[in-house]
Design goal:
By secondary structure, the chain is of the alpha+beta class. Helix content is 15%, strand content 24%. It has a domain at 61-183: L,D-transpeptidase catalytic domain-like (Beta Barrel). The protein has helices spanning 2-19, 164-174, and strands at 26-28, 34-36, 61-65, 70-74, 80-87, 105-108, 111-112, 136-139, 142-146, 160-162, 180-183. A 9-stranded mixed sheet has the order 6-11-3-4-5-10-9-8-7, covered by helices on one side. It has a two-stranded antiparallel ribbon with strand order 1-2.
Length: 190
């Protein structure tokens, strides 16, 4: 009897675990494979890098630090609201034969799209079509968007990649058209 009770409890816990799965942490790649990623509330990257407050600007700000592989969101009063992992543009992209660093400076979000957002340029072989869920455009095609890989390295073609649940939160709850985007400088020796 104890064996059946144990098996029933295991089955019930597995079933309950599936029912509580957070869809915002799953992303389907271009080949159709599902990747389970970290939820933005569990992502601690950037918490020890970005200050808790910055000078108030009266506007919300998204800040990306290529040196820390992290982002921070600040409200209108300069209070840090959230941080998370991010990956920017790499030093050189073999497939396009040129540097791919994310443009450095201060910009504003001018367009947003939802989960269906796609690239107009990448992959190079198909002249676009790569998935960029929850994209937020801030400068000449540069975007902040979801990715299933957000390594401790800058590996993109120039966009700022964040975890899917973070991209969804940023797109739907934080960033609006006109939100300031600050891309900090890359390390001097990289």
């Amino acid at each position: 009897m104890n064996k059946w009770l144990s098996l029933s409890l295991i089955y019930l816990s597995l079933l309950t675990g599936c029912m509580n799965a957070d869809e915002s942490t799953v992303v389907i790649d271009d080949q159709g494979y599902a990747h389970h990623t970290i939820h933005y509330l569990k992502d601690k990257r950037g918490q020890n890098y970005f200050p808790k407050t910055i000078p108030a600007t009266g506007k919300k700000q998204f800040v990306f630090a290529p040196v820390a592989y992290a982002w921070a969101a600040y409200d209108e009063t300069g209070m840090r609201v959230m941080t998370g992992g991010a990956s920017g543009g790499q030093g050189f992209c073999e497939d396009v034969g040129q540097p791919c660093r994310t443009v450095v400076g201060t910009f504003r979000v001018y367009k947003k799209r939802g989960a269906e957002c796609r690239s107009g340029e990448f992959p190079v072989e198909t002249t676009g079509g790569g998935k960029m869920p929850y994209c937020m455009y801030f400068y000449q095609g540069y975007t902040i968007h979801a990715a299933f890989e957000v390594p401790y390295a800058n590996t993109s073609h120039g966009c700022v990649r964040v975890w899917p649940s973070a991209a969804k939160w940023l797109n739907e709850e934080f960033i609006t058209r006109g939100t300031q985007v600050v891309i900090l400088p890359y390390p001097k020796n990289a």
